[in-house]
Amino acid sequence: MRPTILVRFFVALLALGNLTVPSAHSQDEKRSDTYQLESEIEFPAAPNVDPLKFYNRVRYTLEQQHQLIDIVVEEIQFKLFRNQKESFNITQNRQGTVVIFQGKKHRFKFDDVSAKRQQVLRESFGTPLCKIDVDETGKEVKRTMTAGPGAKRVIEYGYVDLCRLFHPPFLVDKKRWTAPLMLRLPNKRTIKGDLTYEKTPDKSIGRTLVKAAGGWKQTDKSAKGMPAEVEIKWQGELAYDNKSKQWITGQLAMDGTSGTAVDREKGQTKKIKLTFRFVAVKPE
Fold first, then answer.
1. In 3D, which of 83, 176, 61, 105 has the Cα closest to residue 168?
2. Residue 256 and residue 270 in contact, taking contact as beta carbons nearer than 8 Å
3. Are 42 and 273 in contact (CB under 8 A)?
4. What is the dihedral sign for C-alpha 193, 199, 204, 207?
5. How many domains does the chain have?
6. How far is CA 40 from CA 7, 157, 275, 276, in A?
7. Are strands 190-200 and 17-20 parallel, antiparallel or unpaired?
């Protein structure tokens, strides 16, 4: 399989990361906060199949004024590891693309690629892809896509959902609440369900710790033949900064199993593990 196909299929698989700590702003003041999210997805070894790990990093900016947020993707990086050895590495941003394959680095600058490729870079990076209307808690109430046609793949790979993953609503007057989670995969499959958030005791001044957990089953009818049942479990912890009114650090992990009724009877279900972590990074 060609490296470009691997990238197209896996580059959008979920998130973990570092984010820039926002400063305190008034509600009407425009703020611009940059975040870096990373994810790792692991497939254990199977008969005649090497263990695989996919790493994805996305740096994005949220430009917010009052309750309207623009999502801007700045940079994407994807790595493939086979038997714990890096076999492929690609980074893309507005300036171009850098590919490391079989130990060799190949750089493709914006000015050196075709006009069609320039359109893809120009409309995928450094420009708003989507406008999000939120309420006073941060809950999404409306989504308006603003991306140009060159950003089609970034949209299809679910990067708008990735950029919302670590920004659930925060309810000041409640100890426990639920919020929807959705991740759109590049193979057109979707992970969708509710996470429960619960505040926990925290001696740190100025922040609130929140446990996150959830689990559900969903049916995957995209494959040929008998539909597969997918069982998903989430757990993690996030911290919310009370002054800047923003999530600033945390981690999430997802364990999943997939298989048809026949697969489950034979004990041949497929397993998948996703790990997400993010920490606040002060602006330089």
1. 176
2. no
3. yes
4. positive
5. 1
6. 14, 16, 5, 7
7. unpaired
CATH number of the domain encompassing residue 115: 2.30.230
Within 11-145, residue ranges assigned H as helices are: 115-124
- Hey, how many other C-beta atoms are within 10 angstroms of the C-beta on 105? 9
Token match 């609503």: residue?
A: 169
The pTM of this model reads 0.83
Radius of gyration of the chain (CA): 20
| Residue 264, domain extent | 3-281
Supply 70's token pair.
């623009």
Per DSSP, what are the bridge partners of residue 80? 54, 88
CA distances to 58, 84, 105, 197 from 61, rounded to whole Å, are 10, 31, 28, 24
Secondary structure (3-state) at 264? helix
User: Residues, the chain, total?
Assistant: 284
The pLDDT tens digits along the chain (284 residues) read 444 444 444 443 333 334 444 444 555 678 888 888 999 988 777 677 788 889 999 999 999 999 999 999 999 999 999 888 898 999 999 999 999 998 899 999 999 999 999 999 999 999 999 999 999 999 999 999 999 999 999 999 899 999 999 999 999 999 999 999 998 765 667 889 999 999 998 777 899 999 999 999 988 766 555 567 889 999 999 999 999 888 988 899 999 888 777 777 777 777 888 888 886 556 55
As beta bridge partners, residue 183 has 191
